[in-house]
Structure formats: structure tokens, C-alpha cells
Specification:
alpha/beta; Rossmann fold; 2 domains; five-stranded parallel beta sheet; 17 helices; 10 strands; O-fucosyltransferase family protein
Length: 426
């Protein structure tokens, strides 16, 4: 342990952080050069600290240099948080240092630091590596990371789960929980909007715990205190995600973002999450418990007004002047999620990452979750819905059979396509 501590002090006072990331930790130089100097310094500290902790755990004077798990978060708030929570659980299980990529785009207009606290650790054990995250707001093109300059593509194993990029497949599972020999000497990069899977599977409790350890910034905490209704633990949470992709966000082109099968499945479940299904379930709860009140979070202000008219004096929610993906609206959305998490029962929308994360943030597993189209509001599927469901099953089956880990040739091909399209890799 003393040897490792000396190594830590000498490294931080020696060559530049960028040089050490490249020479000691095999991070491709083009990737390291694209990171801010503060991020390089923080990553060097965390990687070296992880070396110390791993050596102490192994009872050895030295260990192989630690590696990164780079989490490139995609899509909206719920999607990003489930990737982050599962990624942090994966990093902790495999003794990797997490690097979070949070880019603003049409889905998300807020920086990470406008929603959650971030910082760089100076003291502390392994927990400090996960409570003080290194977050960057831009990143080189994922397929160009490992092929930059003449560096070996074996330095990074990359996984892309996004339909919009090269037909990514969910079946590309990094076996990092076991920290297998295949990946042990490589950094891992994952670009995803979905709960990460591994073999063996990540414990649900571990993923949920990572989500609950994220600390909202002061502005969000103040908004929670100011706007959240009293008595949330006795209320029923209602989250309605009903907008079809075509009218969800004017800034997002669904035809470019999602595959045909993926879009069909999403719209199928949003059709099952319409106001009448929730209103019927809410009416049944009021009939069974006349004192029942609801905290309502919806994607359509008109729907919230309709529920308020149908259940006068029983619905509560946050009042806001925005309906976009900007920083202010995203802070309200996070408070919505936190409020839903504190209710005793959650009536949620199936296939919604927002509902999923609200349930994961619940402080106790005693919260009951019921999903539209599954536990209530079930209806006979029309032939279009049946066809969409069948298409989704076929899509997933084909993806599992055809998916292969990315190769150097795939990286090169992707880079060439980007250059042909006139897109310069960062």
C-alpha cells in the first residue's frame, strides 16, 4: 500500500496528465487530447487511486494499470439516467473508473451539472470514484476512438446500442462484471440509451442504489422543497407518457433516430398509455379509498387539466411555463421524477424510461408499480399493433443472431462513411 501511495504522489507531480494517460493507461492519444485538461487530471487521479485500491485488495505491491468504462449517455432524462446507473454499477463491479459523456442535443438541453452535482475527488476510497464523477460534454465519434492515428484498435472495445448509428444491437454485451481476460486490458466504451446488460447480470438493487446516490444540484433541491406537494408518501403517483413519436418533439426526427420496429413498439405502448386507461384506474382507486390523492406528471398539459377536472381537488403536480427540453424544463422533469419516486403506488407508462427511473429512485422497495397496458387498461390489440409486436420480436431475434463485437475493419468502415458524408470526427 505504501509503494502504491508513493506511486500516486510521484505520478501526479511528474509528467502531464495527458502523457500519463497515454503512456501508462493506454488511452489513445487522440482521445486524450480531445478531453479537457481538468478531465485528464481527474481521470489520472482516479485511475491511480483505483490501482492503489486494487493492489490493496489483492495484497500485492503492483497491479496492471486500471481501465476506463466510458459511458456515452443518449436520448432524454430517463434514458440517460438508466444508462448511468447501470454503468456505474458495472464499473464498480469490475473495478473500472467511469468517464461520463453527457452531450446536449435535441433530446436533452441541460448540462449534467445543471441537474446533478459533479466534482473531482481529492481524498477517500472507492466510493469517491463514483460519488464525484468525471463528466465531459463532448466526445470524438465513437467509431473513430480506437482507430485514431496509428494506434491499436485493441485499446478500446466499443459498443453502440443506438439505432441511429450503424444499426447497433442490444446483444453486444460487455462481459465486464466478470472482468474477463478478453476485456481486462482494454478500456470499454458504451454508447446507449438503455439499461446496460452484462454476464453475470447486474443486481437490480445495485443499479437502483447507484441511481439514488446521484445528488441533484441546489437549484433542483430548492425547486423540490418549493413545489412538491405535502403528503407525497400517501399519494398515488401517475405518470402518463402518451405522445406518439411523430408529435413528441419537433426537434427530434423519429425516422432518423429509431428503427421502424423500435418506433412501432414505442408507439404501440404509448397508444396503451392514453388518458382513459389512467382515469379508469384512478376512479377505481378513489372508489376503494375515498381519501386517495394523486401526484400527476404527464407529457401533455391538456391531459393534466382533464384529469384535474375529472378528479377535482385530488390531483397535484408542478406548474411550469415551459414544454421543451431546455435546462429549466429538465429541472422540473427531474423534480417530477423525484416526486413520483416518493409515492406509495405508481401508475406508470409501460416502455417509458421515465417511469422506470422513477421506480428505481424510490427510497424503499415497498413502492408498488402498475403499468398501463400491462396491469391496467389492457385492450385487444389491433392488427397493426400485433404486426408491430411481431416485427419487434423478429428484429430482436435477428439482432441476437447476427450481432458481433466490433472489429477494426468496422471502425475503419465507419470512419470512411463519416468522411464521405463530410462529417469531421472530433
Amino acid at each position: 500500500m505504501w509503494v502504491q501511495a508513493v506511486r500516486l504522489r510521484s505520478r501526479l507531480s511528474g509528467p502531464t496528465a495527458l502523457d500519463d494517460l497515454v503512456l501508462t493507461y493506454a488511452l489513445p492519444s487522440r482521445l486524450a487530447e480531445a478531453l479537457p485538461a481538468t478531465a485528464c487530471a481527474a481521470l489520472l487521479y482516479q485511475l491511480t487511486l483505483m490501482d492503489v485500491l486494487r493492489a490493496h485488495r489483492a495484497g500485492s505491491a503492483t497491479v496492471e494499470p486500471s481501465r476506463l468504462l466510458i459511458l456515452h449517455l443518449q436520448n432524454g432524462l430517463g434514458n440517460r439516467l438508466r444508462v448511468l446507473a447501470s454503468g456505474l454499477a458495472m464499473a464498480r463491479a469490475s473495478f473500472r473508473v467511469p468517464l461520463v459523456v453527457w452531450e446536449r442535443d435535441a433530446h436533452m438541453g441541460a448540462h449534467f451539472g445543471q441537474l446533478f452535482e459533479e466534482g473531482h475527488p481529492t481524498t477517500g476510497g472507492v466510493d469517491s470514484l463514483f460519488s464525484s464523477l468525471v463528466v465531459v460534454n463532448r466526445f470524438p465519434a465513437w467509431c473513430d476512438v480506437a482507430t485514431a492515428a496509428a494506434e491499436s484498435p485493441d485499446a478500446i472495445t466499443a459498443y453502440n446500442h443506438m439505432d441511429k448509428d450503424l444499426g447497433g444491437s442490444h446483444s453486444q454485451r460487455p462481459d465486464v462484471a466478470a472482468n474477463s481476460e478478453v476485456y481486462r486490458r482494454r478500456h470499454i466504451y458504451v454508447k446507449s440509451a438503455y439499461l446496460l446488460s452484462a454476464s453475470p447480470p447486474l443486481p437490480i438493487a445495485a443499479v437502483n442504489a447507484e441511481a439514488r446516490m446521484l445528488k441533484p444540484v441546489a437549484a433542483v433541491r430548492q425547486l423540490m422543497v418549493k413545489s412538491a406537494p405535502a403528503g407525497l408518501p400517501k399519494m398515488v403517483g401517475v405518470h402518463v407518457r402518451s405522445r406518439r413519436l411523430a408529435r413528441d418533439s419537433a426537434a427530434v426526427d423519429a425516422s432518423c433516430e429509431y428503427s421502424v420496429a423500435s418506433a412501432a413498439i414505442t408507439d404501440q405502448w404509448r397508444n396503451a398509455s392514453q388518458a382513459p386507461a389512467f382515469a379508469a384506474e384512478m376512479a377505481a382507486l378513489v372508489a376503494a379509498g375515498p381519501s386517495t390523492h394523486f401526484f400527476v406528471a404527464v407529457d401533455d398539459a391538456a391531459l393534466a387539466a382533464a384529469l384535474a377536472d375529472q378528479f377535482p381537488g385530488r390531483t397535484h403536480g408542478l406548474t411550469r411555463a415551459c414544454d421543451d427540453r431546455g435546462p429549466t424544463c429538465m429541472q422540473y422533469a427531474l423534480v417530477d421524477m423525484m416526486c413520483l419516486a416518493r409515492t406509495r403506488l405508481l401508475l406508470g407508462s409501460n416502455w417509458s424510461s421515465f417511469t422506470e427511473m422513477a421506480s428505481r429512485l424510490a427510497p424503499s422497495p415497498r413502492q408498488v408499480v402498475r403499468l398501463s397496458g400491462v396491469h391496467f387498461g389492457r385492450r385487444r390489440l389491433f392488427w397493426k399493433d400485433r404486426l408491430a409486436a411481431l416485427a419487434g420480436d423478429v428484429w430482436r431475434l435477428v439482432g441476437r443472431r447476427l450481432a458481433r463485437p466490433p472489429t477494426a475493419a468496422m471502425y475503419t468502415g465507419c470512419r470512411q462513411r463519416l468522411e464521405t458524408a463530410g462529417i469531421a470526427a472530433a
